[in-house]
Protein backbone atom coordinates (compact mmCIF):
# COMPACT_ATOMS: atom_id res chain seq x y z
CA UNK A 1 0.00 0.00 0.00
CA UNK A 2 1.37 3.38 -1.00
CA UNK A 3 1.74 6.12 1.58
CA UNK A 4 -0.02 9.44 1.05
CA UNK A 5 3.33 10.99 0.20
CA UNK A 6 4.00 8.33 -2.46
CA UNK A 7 0.51 8.82 -3.91
CA UNK A 8 1.16 12.58 -4.09
CA UNK A 9 4.42 11.90 -5.91
CA UNK A 10 2.50 9.85 -8.49
CA UNK A 11 -0.10 12.62 -8.76
CA UNK A 12 2.65 15.19 -9.34
CA UNK A 13 3.98 13.02 -12.17
CA UNK A 14 0.65 13.29 -13.97
CA UNK A 15 -1.22 10.20 -12.76
CA UNK A 16 -4.40 12.15 -12.00
CA UNK A 17 -6.33 9.00 -11.06
CA UNK A 18 -4.27 8.92 -7.85
CA UNK A 19 -6.39 11.79 -6.52
CA UNK A 20 -9.19 9.26 -6.02
CA UNK A 21 -7.01 7.33 -3.56
CA UNK A 22 -6.37 10.47 -1.51
CA UNK A 23 -10.05 11.38 -1.63
CA UNK A 24 -11.10 7.94 -0.36
CA UNK A 25 -8.58 8.08 2.47
CA UNK A 26 -9.27 11.59 3.69
CA UNK A 27 -12.64 12.98 2.61
CA UNK A 28 -14.54 11.80 5.71
CA UNK A 29 -12.04 13.26 8.20
CA UNK A 30 -11.86 16.48 6.20
CA UNK A 31 -15.67 16.68 6.05
CA UNK A 32 -15.88 16.15 9.83
CA UNK A 33 -13.27 18.87 10.37
CA UNK A 34 -15.31 21.35 8.32
CA UNK A 35 -18.59 20.24 9.89
CA UNK A 36 -17.24 20.86 13.39
CA UNK A 37 -15.75 24.15 12.25
CA UNK A 38 -18.75 25.68 10.47
CA UNK A 39 -21.69 23.44 11.51
CA UNK A 40 -23.10 23.35 7.96
CA UNK A 41 -23.28 20.02 6.08
CA UNK A 42 -23.71 21.55 2.63
CA UNK A 43 -20.88 24.02 3.11
CA UNK A 44 -18.67 21.25 4.51
CA UNK A 45 -19.28 19.14 1.41
CA UNK A 46 -18.48 22.12 -0.83
CA UNK A 47 -15.27 22.83 1.08
CA UNK A 48 -14.14 19.20 0.81
CA UNK A 49 -14.63 19.38 -2.96
CA UNK A 50 -12.75 22.66 -3.08
CA UNK A 51 -9.83 21.18 -1.16
CA UNK A 52 -9.45 18.27 -3.57
CA UNK A 53 -9.72 20.61 -6.55
CA UNK A 54 -6.95 22.72 -5.04
CA UNK A 55 -4.85 19.62 -4.35
CA UNK A 56 -5.10 18.81 -8.04
CA UNK A 57 -4.46 22.39 -9.12
CA UNK A 58 -1.53 23.01 -6.78
CA UNK A 59 -0.07 19.49 -6.74
CA UNK A 60 3.30 20.75 -7.97
CA UNK A 61 3.68 22.90 -4.83
CA UNK A 62 3.61 19.86 -2.54
CA UNK A 63 7.04 19.07 -1.09
CA UNK A 64 7.82 15.40 -0.62
CA UNK A 65 9.61 16.09 2.67
CA UNK A 66 6.42 17.34 4.33
CA UNK A 67 3.50 15.36 5.70
CA UNK A 68 0.60 15.18 3.24
CA UNK A 69 -2.15 15.61 5.84
CA UNK A 70 -0.58 18.82 7.16
CA UNK A 71 -0.45 20.17 3.60
CA UNK A 72 -4.05 19.07 2.98
CA UNK A 73 -5.34 20.77 6.15
CA UNK A 74 -3.42 23.92 5.23
CA UNK A 75 -5.29 23.93 1.92
CA UNK A 76 -8.53 23.26 3.81
CA UNK A 77 -7.89 26.07 6.21
CA UNK A 78 -7.20 28.44 3.32
CA UNK A 79 -10.39 27.33 1.53
CA UNK A 80 -12.38 28.07 4.70
CA UNK A 81 -10.70 31.45 5.12
CA UNK A 82 -11.52 32.30 1.49
CA UNK A 83 -15.15 31.36 2.16
CA UNK A 84 -15.31 33.55 5.28
CA UNK A 85 -13.74 36.46 3.39
CA UNK A 86 -16.27 36.07 0.58
CA UNK A 87 -19.07 36.39 3.13
CA UNK A 88 -17.56 39.42 4.81
CA UNK A 89 -15.17 41.05 2.33
CA UNK A 90 -14.94 44.21 4.41
CA UNK A 91 -13.88 42.39 7.60
CA UNK A 92 -10.26 41.25 8.00
CA UNK A 93 -10.06 37.52 8.83
CA UNK A 94 -8.27 38.22 12.13
CA UNK A 95 -11.31 40.16 13.32
CA UNK A 96 -13.62 37.30 12.37
CA UNK A 97 -11.47 34.88 14.39
CA UNK A 98 -11.57 37.12 17.43
CA UNK A 99 -15.30 37.87 17.31
CA UNK A 100 -17.31 36.43 20.11
CA UNK A 101 -19.77 33.83 18.94
CA UNK A 102 -23.42 34.70 18.72
CA UNK A 103 -25.29 34.30 22.03
CA UNK A 104 -27.90 32.31 20.10
CA UNK A 105 -27.04 28.62 20.18
CA UNK A 106 -26.10 27.11 16.84
CA UNK A 107 -27.70 23.97 15.49
CA UNK A 108 -27.18 21.27 18.07
CA UNK A 109 -25.84 17.96 16.90
CA UNK A 110 -27.24 15.60 19.45
CA UNK A 111 -26.07 12.04 19.66
CA UNK A 112 -29.09 9.99 20.63
CA UNK A 113 -27.93 8.70 23.98
CA UNK A 114 -24.70 10.55 24.64
CA UNK A 115 -25.41 13.67 26.67
CA UNK A 116 -21.73 14.40 27.33
CA UNK A 117 -20.92 14.44 23.62
CA UNK A 118 -23.82 16.81 23.11
CA UNK A 119 -22.55 19.13 25.84
CA UNK A 120 -19.06 19.08 24.35
CA UNK A 121 -20.41 19.92 20.88
CA UNK A 122 -22.44 22.79 22.31
CA UNK A 123 -19.45 24.06 24.27
CA UNK A 124 -17.31 23.94 21.10
CA UNK A 125 -19.93 26.01 19.27
CA UNK A 126 -19.49 28.76 21.84
CA UNK A 127 -15.78 29.10 21.10
CA UNK A 128 -14.59 31.78 18.69
CA UNK A 129 -13.61 30.37 15.29
CA UNK A 130 -9.83 30.54 15.80
CA UNK A 131 -9.99 28.66 19.11
CA UNK A 132 -12.37 26.07 17.70
CA UNK A 133 -10.11 25.60 14.69
CA UNK A 134 -6.94 25.01 16.73
CA UNK A 135 -8.70 22.47 18.97
CA UNK A 136 -10.14 20.62 15.99
CA UNK A 137 -6.74 20.44 14.31
CA UNK A 138 -4.84 19.39 17.43
CA UNK A 139 -7.34 17.14 19.19
CA UNK A 140 -9.66 15.75 16.54
CA UNK A 141 -7.38 15.73 13.48
CA UNK A 142 -4.33 14.90 15.65
CA UNK A 143 -1.95 17.29 13.91
CA UNK A 144 1.25 18.19 15.71
CA UNK A 145 1.70 21.68 17.09
CA UNK A 146 4.56 22.25 14.66
CA UNK A 147 2.26 21.44 11.72
CA UNK A 148 -0.45 23.75 13.06
CA UNK A 149 2.11 26.51 13.58
CA UNK A 150 3.15 26.18 9.95
CA UNK A 151 -0.48 26.48 8.83
CA UNK A 152 -1.20 29.47 11.02
CA UNK A 153 2.14 31.17 10.32
CA UNK A 154 3.02 31.48 14.00
CA UNK A 155 5.39 29.88 16.49
CA UNK A 156 4.86 26.51 18.14
CA UNK A 157 4.73 28.33 21.48
CA UNK A 158 1.87 30.51 20.21
CA UNK A 159 -0.03 27.39 19.19
CA UNK A 160 0.56 25.82 22.61
CA UNK A 161 -0.74 28.96 24.34
CA UNK A 162 -3.77 29.14 22.03
CA UNK A 163 -4.59 25.45 22.62
CA UNK A 164 -4.23 25.91 26.38
CA UNK A 165 -6.49 28.99 26.42
CA UNK A 166 -8.98 27.30 24.09
CA UNK A 167 -9.17 24.25 26.36
CA UNK A 168 -9.70 26.47 29.40
CA UNK A 169 -12.51 28.35 27.67
CA UNK A 170 -14.02 25.09 26.39
CA UNK A 171 -13.96 23.71 29.93
CA UNK A 172 -15.76 26.81 31.26
CA UNK A 173 -18.46 26.53 28.59
CA UNK A 174 -18.83 22.80 29.19
CA UNK A 175 -19.20 23.25 32.96
CA UNK A 176 -21.69 26.08 32.42
CA UNK A 177 -23.78 23.84 30.17
CA UNK A 178 -23.48 20.89 32.52
CA UNK A 179 -24.71 23.00 35.41
CA UNK A 180 -27.57 24.39 33.39
CA UNK A 181 -26.08 27.87 33.30
CA UNK A 182 -26.36 29.37 29.81
Structure notes:
- The chain has 182 residues and is mainly α.
- It is 70% helix and 0% strand.
- It is built from nine helices and no strands.
- It has helices spanning 4-12, 18-38, 41-57, 68-87, 93-98, 115-125, 129-140, 145-152, 156-178.
- Helix 3 (41-57) packs across helix 4.
- It is globular and about 55 Å long.
- It starts with a helix and ends with a helix.
- The model is unreliable at 102-113 (pLDDT under 50).
Our Rg estimate from Cα atoms comes to 17 Å
Beta-strand share of residues = under 5%
C-alpha geometry: globular
The biggest beta sheet is recorded as: none
Q: Enumerate the spans where pLDDT stays under 50 for 5 or more consecutive residues.
A: 102-113
Number of strands: 0
As a percent range, the share of helical residues equals 55-70%
Structural class: mainly alpha
Element-level helix/strand string: HHHHHHHHH
Mean pLDDT across residues = 84
Through-space gap between termini:
49 Å
Determine the number of helices (DSSP H or I, runs of at least 4 residues): 9
